[in-house]
Amino acid sequence: MFGSLLRTSMVDPERALRGRDGYAYPIPASHTVLGTPLQGPWPAGTAQLYVAMGCFWGAERAMWQLPGVVTTAVGYQGGYTPYPSYEETCTGMTGHTEAVMVAYDPQVLTHEALLRAFWTSHDPTQGYRQGNDRGTQYRSAVYVTTPEQEAATVASREAYSAELAKAGLGPITTEVRPASEAGPFYYAEAYHQQYLDKNPNGYCGLGGTGVDCPVGLTGV
To answer: Is 52 helix (H, G, I), strand (E, B) or coil?
Structure first.
């Protein structure tokens, strides 16, 4: 956070930190705002999507505020180091990005509406940074868990890319791939979970482009 000037290229897998065999810290049982389990079980039909939008504190708050969200959690994903710490991830030597796990009811919150919130809540054109936060751990990403999510993500990316181009902005750099390829979602330390609920005046770092996304307009 706070304008880090760390790695701006991905670490090679063989040079990534070794990590460990399990969590070095406890994971909270429930969400401080929604009161739901962070690690499940959740109601039947609950879908999961993993998104990265820069600093995960503000990104998580943007997600938990959406109607139909069952729970959210912050963590590390998309890299190589098993069970990393926050400090390790901040070095850029784990390959992970700061991610948010979103568990939601697709009957209430459609994939398209969720993705619209994702695209418009940050600037997906910035590569390995988000605002003043710089480093590979701040890259934009979507890790999907179903074919339907993947199709919706690709379609919404194409639609939003066209709108950004009209506004004179560059191409979208968001990493999109199946969560099974991105690797496990490793829950972050307890003090990071729902950080802006515990610290309402804390650093957010979230900022969009000001360009709306033309998909999911009736789903939010």
So the answer is: strand
